[in-house]
Amino acid sequence: MRARAVLVLLLAGGVPAGVTLAQAPAPAGHVVVTPDAIVWKPGPPFFRPGAQSTVIYGDMSQAGPYVARMKAPAGFKIMPHWHPSDENVTVLSGTVAMGTGDTIDEKTSHELTAGSFMRVPAQTHHYFVARTDTIIQVHGTGPFSITYVNPADDPRAAAAKP
After folding, report:
1. Closest CA to 119 of 90, 141, 92
2. What is the pTM (predicted TM-score) of this model?
3. Among 86, 114, 140, 152, which residue's Cβ finds the most Cβ atoms within 10 Å?
4. Backbone angles phi, psi at 105, to 5 degrees
5. Spatial contact of 137 and 53, defined as CB atoms under 8 Å apart
6. What DSSP string runs through the chain?
7. Dihedral angle at the C-alpha atoms of 107, 94, 78, 156, nearest 10 degrees?
8. pLDDT value at position 119?
9. What is the pLDDT of residues 137-160, one digit of tens each?
10. pLDDT at res. 31
11. pLDDT under 50 in the chain at which residues?
């Protein structure tokens, strides 16, 4: 019973105010989310326009586990960036190119199709290119943040300019 209570506490939480990710269901023990229950919203401000996202559970701004999904159109890119914690990416549909480094390098990127998984250790510079319409699932331990290798690639910087 005690382990069950700890699990409930670990999974509890919602998306913080001001973040444009969809609200995650309030976990109360066992969590089930079916595709028809997912609410897609425009991607968060740290992505260029075009992507959609949702949080399956957790609070990405807080310490603890989270699961999020991103739907990206063919050609969508996330320029080289890094995170302070490990990132785990599973391709649910479509094909993506992911690689490491400070620039997008088509020759060294890994082509990942549906069912593929990539673990990116904390602080590893990496990038993402959707080759086709794609849905990925990202899970990790928050708090989540993203830092672009080249600050000019950060959509938040462009949005802050008058």
Report:
1. 90
2. 0.80
3. 140
4. -125, 100
5. no
6. -HHHHHHHHHH---PPTT--SPPPP---SS----GGG---EEPPTTS-BTBEEEEEES-TTSSEEEEEEEEE-TT-EEEEEE-SS-EEEEEEESEEEEEESSS--TTTPEEEETT-EEEE-TT--EEEEESSSEEEEEEEEEPP--EESSGGG-HHHHHH--
7. 170
8. 97
9. 999 999 999 999 999 999 998 766
10. 83
11. 1-23, 25
- One-letter amino acid at 132 equals T
Q: Which residue has the tokens 């890094």?
A: 82
Q: Exposure string (b/e) for 130-145, b if CB count within 10 Å is 16 or more?
A: bbeebbbebbbbbbbe
Of 138, 147, 140, the residue nearest 68 (C-alpha): 138
